[in-house]
Write a structure and sequence with these properties.
The chain has 9 helices and 10 strands. The chain is an alpha/beta fold and about 290 residues long. Strand 8 and strand 9 form a beta hairpin. Helix 2 packs parallel to helix 3 and helix 5 runs antiparallel to helix 6.
Length: about 290
């Protein structure tokens, strides 16, 4: 890649910085490091990285406060921030999203997971920038003479094709919800739920939620709509075409499209993580039994 993405890694533990930056460099990314929040703010201001991996628990200003300061600075507010944390409670995750983070990875760090999250959010950032460029282009084209309408249509179709291509590259499920109904979804979303596109588009999102979770999801959707500026994290059981209920995590971002409120959602399958956590708990329980006997 002639122009690799630049990632700022922020962690107060030198060993963590060294191992993670070495891994990211090996995957073709440029990396910068900062050992605390103050240095991170300075480097983000002047270098403007494409993405920030930010430790939560640090001396001085912690990761949450560092993120808040990034988001009130016009120069750095659009840089996606992924938290690295050993804090796994839903309350801590929500706190991170309220501070302006777009995602999180749990410690101890799993490099493949970091790579997947980084790749996803760099693509989402590219999508967002593409949408802004497209909107500006539409405004400019609308000011031109009506005789250019054929060219305008061709340009819009090209922009839409590029956007759809970027969306399909995201490995997580990507969904757009308007008035509670799905108006767009990528291939990964269809595959997660086992449906063909014609069985998804136009349907209520709650149709793809396990019955015992539908009331909670509906309440969460209402709360998210009231917080138009913040991404929100929610965990629920999704309902698949073959009748299974599977653990799922969704990040919802409320926004406006053509003046109407919509939700942009990233769905992530949690089945493997839940199973891994169960095995860890079982192993710890067996270890405790061994100590007693």
């Amino acid at each position: 890649n002639s122009s690799p993405h630049t990632i700022l890694v922020v962690d107060d533990t030198p060993a963590n910085l060294s191992s993670l930056t070495d891994y990211l460099k090996g995957e073709g990314y440029k990396t910068l490091i900062a050992s605390n929040g103050t240095i991170a703010l300075e480097r983000a201001q002047y270098i403007h990285p494409d993405l920030i991996l930010l430790d939560v628990l640090m001396p001085g200003i912690d990761g949450f406060e560092t993120c808040r300061r990034l988001k009130v600075n016009e120069v750095t507010r659009d840089i996606p921030v992924i938290f690295m944390t050993a804090l796994t409670s839903t309350e801590d995750k929500v706190k991170g999203f309220e501070a302006g983070g777009v995602d999180y990875v749990t410690k101890p760090i799993q490099y493949e997971e970091v790579l997947a999250r980084v790749s996803t959010h760099l693509r989402i950032r590219q999508l967002t920038q593409s949408l802004k460029t497209q909107a500006n282009e539409i405004r400019r084209l609308n000011e031109q003479l009506n005789a250019e309408n054929i060219q305008v249509k061709a340009n819009l179709q090209e922009s839409e094709q590029k956007y759809n291509t970027l969306v399909e590259e995201i490995t997580d499920g990507y969904v757009v919800i308007q008035d509670g109904r799905i108006v767009f979804a990528n291939r990964a979303f269809y595959e997660m739920h086992g449906y063909q596109p014609e069985a998804v588009l136009g349907k209520e999102f709650l149709h793809f939620v396990a019955s015992e979770d539908r009331n909670r999801v509906a309440e969460f959707d209402t709360e998210t709509a009231e917080k138009m500026s913040a991404s929100q994290l929610f965990e629920y059981m999704r309902f698949t075409q073959d009748g299974r209920n599977l653990p799922t995590e969704i990040t919802l971002k409320p926004t406006l499209y053509e003046g109407k409120p919509i939700h942009l959602g990233i769905c992530r399958d949690m089945t493997e993580r839940v199973e891994m956590e169960r095995k860890i708990r079982d192993a710890e329980r067996l270890a405790d039994i061994g100590k007693i006997t």
